[in-house]
Hints:
By secondary structure, this protein is α/β, with parallel strands linked by helices. It has 5 domains: 1-65 and 172-232, Rossmann fold (3-Layer(aba) Sandwich); 76-170, no CATH class; 238-288; 315-523, 3-Layer(aba) Sandwich (Rossmann fold), CATH 3.40.50.300; 551-642, Methane Monooxygenase Hydroxylase, Chain G, domain 1, CATH 1.20.58. Helices cover 44% and strands 18% of the residues. Strands 5-6-7-3-8-9 form a 6-stranded mixed sheet, with helices on both faces. A hairpin with a 2-residue loop joins strand 17 and strand 18. The longest helix has 47 residues, at 551-597. The chain starts with a strand and ends with a helix. The relative contact order is 0.08.
Amino acid sequence: MLTISGISKAYGPKELLSDASLQVNKGDRIGLVGPNGAGKSTLLKMVLSQVEPDSGTIQFQRGSVLGYLPQEMADVDDETVIELATAISEEHKNLRRIVVYESIKPESLGLSIEDCHQRFQEIDGYRLEASAAKVLVGLGFKESDFARPARELSGGWIMRAHLARLLVQEPDLLMLDEPTNHLDLPSLRWLQDHLERYRGAIFLISHDREFLNRVVDSIVDVERSGLRRYRGNYDEFLVAKEAEEEQALSAYQNQQKEIDRLMLFVNRFRAKSTKAKQAQSKLKQVERMEKLEAPKSEDRSIQFSFPQPKRSGLRVINLKDVSHAYGKLEVYRGLEFEVERGQCIGLVGPNGAGKTTLLKLLAGVEALQAGERNLGPNVDLGYFSQHRVETLDENSTVMAEALRSAKAVTETYARSVLGCFMFRGDDVFKQVKVLSGGEKSRLALVKLLLCPPNLLLMDEPTTHLDIDSVEALVFALKQFEGTLIFVSHDVHFLRSLAERVVHVEDGVLQHYHGDYDYYVEKSAGTMEVRKESKTPSNPAQNARGGSAISSKERRRLEAQERQKRSKLLKGKQSKVERFEKQIIEIEKRLAELAEKLADPSVYRDPEGAKALRQEESRKKAELVHVSQDWEIAVEEYTAASEA
């Protein structure tokens, strides 16, 4: 499908790729990894002919369809969200405007209205409409968003709409550059499930190791200007690469021992006439030997003890009866939230649910509109926002900026920590203003870790970090002895650190007193997870979760629980049956309309034919919506049955 042969690319003295080759076949699911600046995005751009290689060739199998999602902003025109999601080709976009919206005349395509309808059916236009709606909902859009102009959306939501378009198009080769950057956890989990079932080939860049583990079956490592392919997911790649590095080091060491042994003989006996011939022979043996290069092992283990903050009081911070709104949009009303020393809390939930607002209220960045915010004794608060790079001094060097607020550490120690976050050698003398966004984010993290507060609030700290930098941050925060509250959509980061998870949605905080896996187990499959803070999970416990009650009382409670569950299931089953009945009725009417529209005599009355087509379009749109509701109802019924 895609053949990359011997390509090279350099920018000035920096060589990104040299004589690199790769074969992508049908059904391959490849993750492209490597440190920031290694050339991953450049490789994708060369495949797309947006960048020319200095040498080598890139060839596609004839007839293959390629789809690409860039890392940065993609363009939009005047289309709505649903139009963008269904714009898989110019022909489909134009036919849709004629057949569904009647916003342009069929004459603009040189076709009659009947030909347009027929062609739209031939290219499966109506099915694509339903598919686009399903994908948009999976990626977090509401049905009310479908008719919104795409230009009104934020950059992240525009990228989601473009991603939806690619998933609807189903190209033979799907190329994605950091597709998880703009997704919240529910959308990320949906995308993972969708890509696991994707029929085409996938070639993607991601710094989310959990996403790579779920989606890909081979890893291409961009290292030392080459492309090295490993079978398996990301975790399997790490094991294989470590074993490979150990073998390379062992081979190099064995060769060095052999060279030392031969040269010892040469140096000892080359001056003796009786041994000179043997010495010369061994010297030639060394010269003929194909020398192995010393492996440049990228040591991923981090062995530093980071500075620790002073100890705070037991009660670190609390919010009491807090309300907050942005204009008419109410985010919180009567919010209660309390945190104790040493807790590590991950905030999760859909985008726009209020997670960042909660962090800002805790940090004091957003003024309270009602209620109280109380800091405990000896609390030193630090807020690591999504806009942290703005606090850096552009005219300072990396080293000077790192030491600016960390007076208790030496320059040698600061250099060691900077090295963990990929600032090595002369990189520490670069000016901040020449750094990339990812490099600035890493530097801001170093500053924070060199002089940490005892209450640390972090909003998406892994954004722009490569996998090794994320690991360095996880290592540092695992040592952290203070209190940590963070927002993240990185599953690996959440799983590594969160000891308690708080789900934020619709102004409600739902507490899960366990790690991320506990949260997933308790929240999966149903929208009706009981709030732990209000309802005991075991009906055999009293309201305080205390001692066991009598057997008779327990049986009574269990019977009530069964009745409640049975009633819930019947309600959900009725809901499914109601939608199924609606679908049958709509499909029956569509069949009647299709039969009428197939009769040429209908078109003798243009107004009557137009009315029939409009009704057909409305019914097809209605079928899409009811089918969506039916799918959701089936999922809810299945989840309730398995609970």
